[in-house]
Write a structure and sequence with these properties.
470 residues, mainly alpha, 69% helix, elongated
Length: 470
């Protein structure tokens, strides 16, 4: 058995493997586990490979009994826990407890037969047979799970750990009962489907109608499954609009067909929460911009797809979330020019406390450099997100103020570069590199190239350049 130290070394190594190699290794390990091999630490290896495998398409993974069991509800799986149940989302951490309860307590004989059949098919590389066996098992598993949750609530809570897991089990059971039809949705919309065109929409509507005939309470999930398979998730609302024959959010959101919209808004609220959790001055620019982009994309798209009314349930949620995000980003924009100016050394001129002027005798504080570049990147990366993110005015002010500070500083810097000599040259060169990096972010590459040419000309006029030429 591996020690804790060696296990950690192995995990770290596996997490750095190239994607294709990681997938081949994972497939070999999963087949060995299916064959009940005991020589390899299966769980440890797969845990180490997980960071690489998470980016892989699910259909390329080895079809294990548990993985095939999850197929009907895989598009609902999420990784982040919530305080309250969100219908249309299933926490990934709840899947294994649900499977264990189902396979060990509810239908152990049927689950064992299913697992054995899948293992034999996979070992023989008869993957179509494994898929067909899973399709037979899903409705049986769904009925057993739904009945147990409905009639043995206390037992379900004890087996699954909490009420949220029980609620997730209800969603899982609902989708398992119509598993073959969910596969029809997945086949119609392979990930990522670029757009839900008219033909695909009508194909989705036909599947929806069949689900209504078989299991009406599963019908609202069709648009949620479709949403997770579309490059533009909000296009799934087209199905809700078609079914409801309505365009206003006040009418759609009050029906079951509003589930896709509720899930989209919940996604947007997750982005809002992540944005509001960011703190000055140390923050991840890429993560903040990613959450902001997702937030603005969803909020803008929902308004385009559905006739949102200010007094409607969705309209009120949108207004509240936009105001919250706008307030947070206003704060970042107000602080950004100050952080940029603080990284450019300066001192008060004259003996009576005159205006601040650049100080080219000081080395730039590395911590201030990092902060200035971080805020400058934020200004640069949010140019197209500011208006839909409700902080357009503050962004414009921040960009103009930062640009004014930088232009003035650059002019003084170029003058200094013409006369600097001796040990101060190293300090000035360092300040020039910072100014150049900020110029690229606040302006653009053409402005930066112009600064490079002017700096080169200024350096050519410096006393040290003249001495070298002599």
């Amino acid at each position: 058995m591996l020690t804790i130290e060696k296990s950690e070394v192995l995990r770290n190594f596996l997490g750095t493997l190239p994607r294709e190699l990681a997938m081949r290794l994972a497939a070999a390990v999963e087949v060995d586990r299916l064959a009940e091999g005991s020589a390899l630490p299966h769980d440890l290896i797969l845990e180490g490979l997980r960071p690489v495998l998470q980016a892989s398409e699910a259909h390329k993974r080895t079809p294990t009994p548990l993985r095939l069991f999850c197929r009907p509800f895989e598009d609902l799986l999420v990784n982040t826990p919530r305080k309250e149940k969100q219908k249309g989302r299933v926490l990934r951490a709840h899947v294994v407890p649900i499977w264990h309860w189902l396979s060990h307590a509810l239908i152990p004989d049927a689950a064992r037969a299913y697992s054995d059949d899948v293992r034999r098919a996979v070992m023989a590389k008869r993957y179509d047979d494994a898929d067909a066996r899973a399709e037979l098992f899903w409705p049986e598993a769904g009925r057993a799970l739904a009945e147990a949750v409905a009639q043995r609530r206390k037992e379900a809570r004890a087996a699954l750990g909490n009420d949220l897991a029980v609620a997730d089990a209800e969603d899982v059971a609902t989708l398992l009962k119509v598993g073959p039809l969910i596969m029809a949705v997945q086949n119609l919309l392979p990930k990522p489907t670029a757009s839900l065109n008219e033909d695909l929409l009508w194909g989705l509507r036909r599947i929806y109608d069949r689900v209504c005939e078989q299991q009406a309470d599963a019908a609202p999930f069709i648009s949620v499954v479709a949403m997770r398979r579309l490059a533009k998730p909000w296009e799934a609302l087209k199905l809700a609009l078609q079914v409801a024959r309505q365009t206003q959010d006040t009418l759609i959101s009050s029906t079951d067909m509003g589930l896709a919209g509720d899930v989209l808004l919940a996604d947007m609220e997750d982005n809002r929460a992540a944005i509001m959790a960011v703190r000055h001055p140390a923050f991840d620019v890429d993560a903040l911009v990613s959450n902001l982009a997702s937030f603005t994309n969803i909020s803008s798209a929902i308004v385009k797809e559905v006739e949102i009314l200010r007094h409607g349930r969705w309209g009120q949620r949108l207004l509240k979330d936009r105001a919250a995000v706008g307030a947070v980003m206003d704060g970042f924009m107000e602080r950004a020019p100050k952080e940029i100016a603080a990284a450019l050394p300066s001192h008060k001129s004259g003996f009576t406390g005159g205006p601040r002027v650049p100080d080219f005798s000081k080395h730039v504080d590395p911590e201030r450099i990092e902060r200035a570049l971080r805020y400058a990147r934020l200004i640069s990366s949010t140019k197209l997100l500011a208006v839909p993110g409700s902080f357009g005015a503050k962004h414009t002010d921040a960009l103009e103020e930062a640009a004014q500070v930088l232009r003035s500083y650059n002019e003084d810097l170029l003058k200094e570069m013409r006369t600097v000599e001796g040990p101060h040259r190293e300090v000035v060169d360092a300040q020039y590199q910072l100014a150049l990096a900020l110029t690229i972010l606040i302006f653009d590459e053409s402005e930066a190239e112009f600064l490079r040419r002017r700096a080169k000309a200024a350096q050519a006029q410096s006393p040290s350049a003249s001495t070298a030429a002599a």
